[in-house]
Specification:
Largest sheet: 4 strands, mixed
Order of helices and strands: EEEEHEEEH
Strand content: 25-35%
Helix content: 10-25%
Structural class: alpha+beta
Oligomer: single chain
Distance between the termini: 28 Å
Strand order of the largest sheet: 4-1-6-5
């Protein structure tokens, strides 16, 4: 493999009905229009959990307690110019109202319907795990 390893972190936010939040990548970003879990890059000084708390606040205006984040699985995917490593955490608790701050559309999706949403290649195996495939 050539290229660098990029560590990103993602969250499966579950609502009271057991649905999972997906965010659509906005126009102007790489892979615009595809649906993914909220999250983002882990900075060198951060743990994955701390990065996820920061990213969820930056992207969705919510506050999540690190202790509520439960690791589920991870994705390891080779893109042409980098290799993505992405741990996925679940949580059912946060403070504040969801408010997308980056122009992204949001959708609450049943786990059985995740594959109806076009997603980046790295997210597909995560959809598989959550949908029981």
């Amino acid at each position: 493999m050539t290229g660098r390893v990029v560590l990103v972190v993602a969250a499966a936010l579950y609502d009271a009905e057991g649905r999972i939040l997906l965010a659509q990548r906005p126009a102007g970003k790489p892979m615009a229009g595809l649906w993914e879990f909220p999250g983002g890059k882990v900075e060198s000084s951060e743990t994955p959990e701390r990065a996820l708390v920061r990213e969820l606040h930056e992207e969705l205006s919510i506050m999540v307690d690190e202790t509520s984040l439960k690791p589920i699985t991870f994705a390891s995917h080779a893109y042409p110019d980098f290799h993505l490593l992405m741990p996925l955490y679940a949580t059912e608790s946060w403070e504040g109202e969801l408010a997308p701050r980056e122009g992204q559309a949001l959708a609450w999706v049943r786990s059985s319907d995740l594959h109806l949403y076009p997603a980046p290649a790295a997210d597909i195996p995560l959809f598989d795990v959550l949908s029981g495939k």
